[in-house]
Amino acid sequence: MAFTAKILLLGSGELGREFVISAKRLGCEVIACDSYAGAPAMQVADGFEIFSMLDAELLRAAIERHQPDYIVPEIEAIRTEVLADVEAQGRTVVPSARATIMTMNRDRIREVAAVELGLRTSRYRYAETLEEVLAGAEHTGLPCVIKPVMSSSGKGQSTVRSPDELERAWNYAVANMRGDRSRVIVEEFVDFDYEITLLTVRSRDGVSFCPPIGHRQERGDYQESWQPAPMTGHALAAAQDMARAVVDNLGGYGIFGVEFFVKGEDVIFSELSPRPHDTGMVTLISQDLSEFDLHARAILGLPVPEVQARGASASAVLLADRESADFRVEGLADALAAQEGHVDLRIFAKPTTRPYRRMGVTLALANDTDSARRIAADAAAKLRIIYEG
Ligand SMILES: Nc1ncnc2c1ncn2[C@@H]1O[C@H](COP(=O)(O)OP(=O)(O)OP(=O)(O)O)[C@@H](O)[C@H]1O
Ligand SMILES: NCC(=O)N[C@@H]1O[C@H](COP(=O)([O-])[O-])[C@@H](O)[C@H]1O
Ligand SMILES: [Mg+2]
């Protein structure tokens, strides 16, 4: 078959699945990798590989076997040294090996943003012992947020409000971190008015932005998102300037989800994903080209036109509440029968559930973001996970 390009996708969750669909529409061949069988992106890809992407030898072997034109990371937990090696040998890593290394480690990206680029961030300190955690909290003040430097989706993260909680937060972070570096970041708690993801595309046409996405998080994990997030022109311009500086520093082509906290007119850089962002699933309904379409176009070196927004939109998540390998999702007809606005959904068809695992998302398009949020949340509430075992 005459495919446009061959892509090795490292990580095959719900974000990967939508990316595969976008890439397939442009004629690509995609091999989806993850550590378990039946992952969402594997269900729609041309081929799949099941192995731990943290294992350098297995990762190298998969790259050798498939000889991809593009290596597209979809998760953070990847042996990024291998990506640096293969990039040095001439392979294309999306957006760049450097971007994957910097963003996998909170301390590295924080140094780029706060020190090298001088962007506004929360006050912070790193800590490798309980004593350093205590000193860090002295520096930031309380409340503070403690996170492993290697983690995502809020894993190992806690907010500390009184000094006697610091030890528990340190132990929790170390117990839930990824990788082998017992290192945390102690961050000043930012009492923000709202937080946003600014989807930023770096392509052959330069840097462009999607309208800002507002979102609400619980346990460090996203619950609902909406677009456009209302913000002043001044605050949006400040966020765009910071996002541009960061993505130009990281380099390469693709979409980035740049996260900010906003308080009044102050815009504070938080972190970013060098790939589609979970809160950006709202673009599946809100834009003519979704974040996944934009990622695919940018990677392939295709033109990236200005995004056409369809209107006020929102997404809301469907979460599991227990462990099961025998379950089904019901209520799709009820969820899609909203009387108002347009409603759509994605069911990820993951093979197992666990508490708080994201199993699906609802999408709504309405006259204003408040209505879109309400419609998306109502639709999500009509979806039910029926556990058989
Ligand atoms: N310093 C802070 N002050 C206030 N809230 C914070 C702070 N740091 C994190 N949070 C809250 O926790 C959420 C998750 O934090 P962060 O994005 O750093 O974690 P993450 O594990 O990388 O999440 P993801 O991988 O899903 O983006 C933020 O979106 C925000 O709601
Ligand atoms: N915030 C990062 C994020 O949303 N990542 C998305 O979740 C998947 C893992 O889900 P799982 O833990 O349910 O397998 C990842 O593969 C990616 O699609
Ligand atoms: Mg985040």
UniProtKB/TrEMBL annotation:
Mg(2+) binds at residues 259, 271. Gene3D superfamilies: 3.40.50.20, ATP-grasp fold, A domain, ATP-grasp fold, B domain. GO terms for molecular function: transferase activity. Residues 111-300 form the ATP-grasp domain. Pfam families: ATP-grasp, PurT_C, RS_preATP-grasp-like. Pathway: Purine metabolism; IMP biosynthesis via de novo pathway; N(2)-formyl-N(1)-(5-phospho-D-ribosyl)glycinamide from N(1)-(5-phospho-D-ribosyl)glycinamide (formate route): step 1/1. Keywords: ATP-binding, Ligase, Magnesium, Metal-binding, Nucleotide-binding, Purine biosynthesis, Transferase. It catalyses: N(1)-(5-phospho-beta-D-ribosyl)glycinamide + formate + ATP = N(2)-formyl-N(1)-(5-phospho-beta-D-ribosyl)glycinamide + ADP + phosphate + H(+). It is an enzyme of class 6 (ligase). PROSITE patterns: ATP_GRASP. ATP binds at residues 106, 147, 152-157, 187-190, 195. SUPFAM superfamilies: Glutathione synthetase ATP-binding domain-like, PreATP-grasp domain, Rudiment single hybrid motif. Its EC number is 6.3.1.21. N(1)-(5-phospho-beta-D-ribosyl)glycinamide binds at residues 14-15, 74, 278, 350, 357-358. Homodimer. Involved in the de novo purine biosynthesis. Catalyzes the transfer of formate to 5-phospho-ribosyl-glycinamide (GAR), producing 5-phospho-ribosyl-N-formylglycinamide (FGAR). Formate is provided by PurU via hydrolysis of 10-formyl-tetrahydrofolate. HAMAP family: PurT (MF_01643). NCBIfam families: PRK09288.1, purT. Belongs to the PurK/PurT family. PANTHER family: FORMATE-DEPENDENT PHOSPHORIBOSYLGLYCINAMIDE FORMYLTRANSFERASE. This is Formate-dependent phosphoribosylglycinamide formyltransferase. It comes from Sphingobium tyrosinilyticum. The gene is purT.
